[in-house]
Design goal:
heterodimer, A: 761 residues, alpha+beta, Aldehyde Oxidoreductase, domain 4, Aldehyde Oxidoreductase, domain 3, 4 domains, seven-stranded mixed sheet, six-stranded mixed sheet, 19 helices, B: 159 residues, Ubiquitin-like (UB roll), DNA polymerase, domain 1, 2 domains, five-stranded mixed sheet, 5 helices, 5 strands, globular, binds FE2/S2 (inorganic) cluster
Chain lengths: 761, 159
């Protein structure tokens, strides 16, 4: 039997429980004796802690304990960085609880353990906190003055400058025939998950074991951190992944609560659960994206890109969190996007400010850089009188230039290469899908009350972060197989995808893959988790490896029993047989297990293009999407149904960030968007007209499945595409959007400014 | 104080504090954890349940207000042997990823299709716009609800 589950739109197995209300998320757990944790957070953005008095709170009936930094002998542990853990960042890492200073609104000060959440919340009000406020560093401009400093001992608010370098940009700029300079920025938004974060910890004092539920994304790494901080051997801690209500890069990193709750459970020797409320989530989960760029692009007069040079500044918030540096690095490294830029010189500064710290959000740095380069390209096309599609086509990296090297990043000396692809093919396809020749006649036209505009943007998406992933197959009593993995699910549907891969590799029916387990530390010897669009590529390839070992193990066991050569043993879904027809039922080998690992240092790069047709109402600044097409070449689609879900889902997140979502602070560092009424998310009526096309023309050369990570393509170019469409629609006012999000107010202001300028001329 | 109401066809009596929301009562006291809490402020719709046939946000209603009414949760719209036509349609169209919003969409869509089995895409979008899904981008959810209409139509508003 030759299976073809890979490539088929197989319906998901996880749906059976989710659709019937039988999923099990961390808040659904309620063991005997459970205490609820509620966290007191700083309401001051920047200040020195004078005292935290918990006496009155402890007297409230039902309050079991209140934990502060004083309960941690030797001071609160510091959370180390997971990615780019440079020594320069060390002094800026976050303690699990504030002890001397608070640096953002939302920073933990105390943890109340109570019989119910309601009692715990009452107790929060009874804690007396005295904080001597310091002037807030409310954005990177203030930070750069280095007058008020978050970490005094460092003498600066800048934790690092990443340098992206390629060729010799300065030389090119000295003699370039054409240069365009721009200053632009992207707003602060984040990977809000609909399920708020949660941690539940149980301490087994007799056995000295800690069980932590609510793990996600990188449980093995987080276990290593926790083991050190809490002084237990790693194998005394089980991290358990439950159903996870969305990740997007933000959930599952090691946050302060990932120490505080296990610590609390051991402290009181009772199970403790903490579930974040939405207000906390908005001010405690990693923020992302807020950057400002001053860029110059040099071109030949035919529009050939010669060089990019400039500075980018990221508003990091108060601490360097586990993956906090990724965005600031990527925004520099990927500024050239899918385009051929031979000379690059970008300095990307990381500024500490009194805001919630940043981490990654789907497409970290890529969303920002795509907005910058795509806006610049449209402005350049206008200056040079070249069609903007043609300008892109001229500058896209060609298939013949692959693998194509991008800028090197210092101080980490990180190099990278795009792996394969014909970027022009996706551009051509997206134009065809949206019927560009026809709709482009509407560009800038006023029809009724609204102006029509078109935007186009091209992108690459990195995936498959190494170094390794592990999978294990185990034969069950009934002859079915269970698959165990070191990657995690954050709600993408990996159970189904891995079952498809295993069933194809074994050439067995899908039903014979009984379970796919992932994300918990007890399943395999090591695991690297779910980030950087790596689950399918790395986990899927590991499943292939494990399947090979599994079949080899069956052959070996079969050979012994059947007294023949292992190579002569045949395996079918029911029987193991030898060359002379002797056989025995496969299930007699129940318990047989084999692990396999996939090692990889290279990245996959899927790629594609966005094209969008919008209308803009200049009187109210409202953007409406008439048609939006996303084309992406993913190498190979394991499951087109779930892949389409990734593409459209990430696209709508991108549009949210481009048009609606905005985390705002005032000049005192007070947080202004602490509810979903203030922080606007896309709803079902916002973006109804979206389509996507999957291409599989360029399989990845670097993994046995030929797949490329594809969870981010929708988000990466959304800001650039839509901003270009708005500029195109409002060209008669000379409107050039230079910041995201494109709120109605911002667009209205641009139109007004354009009108005034025209009136003055 | 004790309250009595019907949940998924069964009469229940529970002892609740006056400030307890219906959502917390369902989740914590009746252990019906299919009803999810995404905001606790009436914005996200994850907690939507049916109260006497209407889609209601269980985080905005106090448990004591449910006295005497008929409450149906996602568990009550499901059966053991398989998926209902609405659930099947969600699965077919991949109208869920992480599944956290799903119970709220199922209850909301069920209430809509029971009342208006002929509704069009705009109407569906309008009604669903009170529910937030962060994963899917909504296109597939609207397709799933559109596709499920037939099952409600042929059966006079019942799936
Ligand atoms: S939890 Fe009730 S509406 Fe969000
Ligand atoms: S499926 Fe994740 S929020 Fe809707």
């Amino acid at each position: 039997m030759k299976n073809t589950f890979i490539g088929s739109p197989v319906e998901r197995r996880e749906d059976l429980r989710f659709l019937r209300g039988r999923g099990q998320y961390v808040d659904d757990l309620a063991p005997e004796g459970l205490l609820y944790a509620v966290i007191l957070r700083s309401s001051v953005a920047h200040g020195r802690i004078v005292s935290v008095d918990t006496k009155a709170a402890l007297k409230i009936p039902g309050v079991h304990a209140v934990i502060t930094a004083n309960d941690m002998p030797g001071g609160p542990p510091i959370i180390p960085m997971r990615l780019q853990p440079l020594p320069e960042f060390k002094p800026f890492e976050q303690p699990v609880i504030a002890s001397t200073k608070v640096r953002y609104v939302g920073e933990p000060l105390a943890v109340v353990l109570a019989k119910s959440v309601a009692i715990g919340e009452d107790a929060l009000e009874a804690i007396e906190v005295e904080i001597e406020s310091l002037p807030a560093v409310a954005d990177w401009h203030v930070a750069a003055k280095n007058k008020n400093i978050l970490f005094e001992s460092q003498g600066t608010n800048r934790s690092l400058v990443f340098e992206a370098r390629k060729g010799d940009a300065d030389v090119i700029f000295a003699s370039a025939p054409y240069v365009r300079r721009e200053k632009m920025r992207t707003g602060r938004h984040y990977g809000l998950t609909l399920e708020p974060r949660g941690v539940m910890a149980e301490w087994d004092a007799a056995r000295g074991r800690l069980t932590v539920s609510g793990a996600a994304k990188v449980p093995f790494f987080n276990r290593r951190i926790l083991a050190k901080q809490i002084n237990l051997p790693e194998d005394s801690i089980d991290m358990v992944e439950n159903d996870v209500g969305g990740g997007y890069g933000a959930r599952g990193e090691f946050y302060p609560e990932d120490f505080l709750i296990p610590f609390a459970a051991r402290h009181v020797n009772r199970p403790v659960k903490w579930i974040e409320d939405r207000r906390e989530n908005l001010m405690a989960m990693n923020h992302a994206r807020e950057t400002e760029a001053e860029l110059e692009v040099a071109c030949a007069s035919d529009g050939t890109l010669l060089a990019i040079r400039g500075e980018i500044h990221t508003d990091m918030g108060a601490y360097m969190r586990t993956n906090g540096a990724v965005g600031a690095r990527n925004v520099a490294q990927f500024l050239s996007g899918p385009y051929r830029v031979p000379h690059i010189k970008i300095d990307s500064s990381l500024w500490m400010t009194n805001k919630t710290p940043v981490g990654t959000y789907r497409g970290p740095g890529r969303f920002e850089s795509s907005f910058y380069i795509e806006r610049m390209l449209d402005m350049i096309a206008g200056d040079l009188g070249i069609d903007r599609v043609e300008l892109r086509r001229r500058n896209l990296v060609t298939a013949a230039e692959q693998p194509y090297s991008i800028a090197t990043i210092q101080p980490t000396n990180a190099t990278d290469q795009y792996d394969s692809g014909d970027y022009r093919a996706t551009l051509d396809r997206v134009l065809k899908e949206i019927n560009w020749p026809e709709v482009s006649k509407l560009q800038g036209k006023l029809i009724g009350e609204k102006y029509h505009g078109l935007g186009v943007a091209c992108f690459v998406e990195g995936g498959a972060a190494g170094p390794k992933e592990t999978a294990r197959l185990e034969l069950n009593d009934d002859g079915t197989v269970s698959v165990f993995l070191g990657t995690s699910s954050v709600g993408q549907g990996v159970e189904t995808v891995f079952a498809q891969i295993a069933a194809d590799a074994l050439e067995w029916p899908m039903e014979r893959i009984r379970h796919v387990h992932h994300g918990s530390t007890s399943y395999v010897s090591d695991g690297y988790g779910a980030y950087h669009s790596r689950s399918t590529v790395m986990g899927g390839s590991a499943v292939l490896e494990a399947t090979n070992h599994f079949q080899a193990a069956i052959r070996e066991a079969g050979a012994k029993r059947l007294k023949c050569e292992a190579a002569a043993v045949k395996i079918d879904p029911d029987n193991v047989s030898g060359p002379d027809g002797q056989s025995f039922p496969l299930k007699e080998l129940a318990g047989l297990t084999a692990e396999g690992a996939f090692l990889n240092k290279k990245h996959t790069y899927s790629y594609g293009a966005h094209a969008v047709h919008v209308t803009v109402d200049p009187k109210i600044g409202r953007i409406e999407i008439i048609d939006y097409v996303l084309v992406q070449d993913v190498g190979r689609a394991v499951n087109p149904l779930t892949l389409r879900g990734q593409m459209i889902g990430s696209l709508v997140q991108g549009l949210g960030g481009a048009v609606l979502e905005h985390l705002q602070y005032d000049e005192d560092g007070q947080f202004l968007t602490a509810s979903l009424a203030d922080y606007l998310l896309p709803t079902a009526s916002d973006f109804p007209n979206l389509r996507c096309v999957i291409l599989e023309d360029y399989p990845s050369p670097i993994n046995p499945l030929s797949v490329k990570g594809a969870g981010e393509g929708g988000i990466v170019a959304a800001g650039g595409a839509i901003a270009n469409a708005v500029a195109n629609a409002l060209q008669s006012f000379g409107v050039e959007p230079r910041q995201l999000p494109l709120t109605p107010t911002y667009i209205w202001e641009l139109v007004q400014a354009g009108r005034q300028k025209q009136a003055a001329e | 104080m004790p309250i009595r109401f019907e949940v998924n066809g069964k009469q229940v009596t529970v002892e609740v504090e006056p400030r307890l929301t219906l959502a917390d009562c369902l989740r914590q006291q009746l252990r019906l954890t299919g009803t999810h809490i995404g905001c606790d402020h009436g914005v996200c719709g994850a907690c939507t349940v049916l109260v006497d046939g209407d889609a209601v946000r269980a985080c905005l209603m106090l448990a004591v207000q449910a006295e005497g009414s008929k409450v149906v949760t996602v568990e009550g719209l499901s059966n053991d042997d398989g998926l209902t036509p609405l659930q099947k349609s969600f699965r077919k169209h991949h109208a869920l990823q992480c599944g956290f919003c799903t119970p709220g969409f199922i209850t909301t869509a069920h209430a809509l299709l029971s009342e208006e089995p002929d509704c069009d895409a705009d109407r569906i979008r309008d009604v669903l716009s009170g529910n937030i899904c962060r994963c899917t981008g909504y296109i597939s959810i609207v397709e799933a609800v559109l596709d499920a209409r037939a099952a409600y139509k042929s059966n006079g508003g019942k799936p």
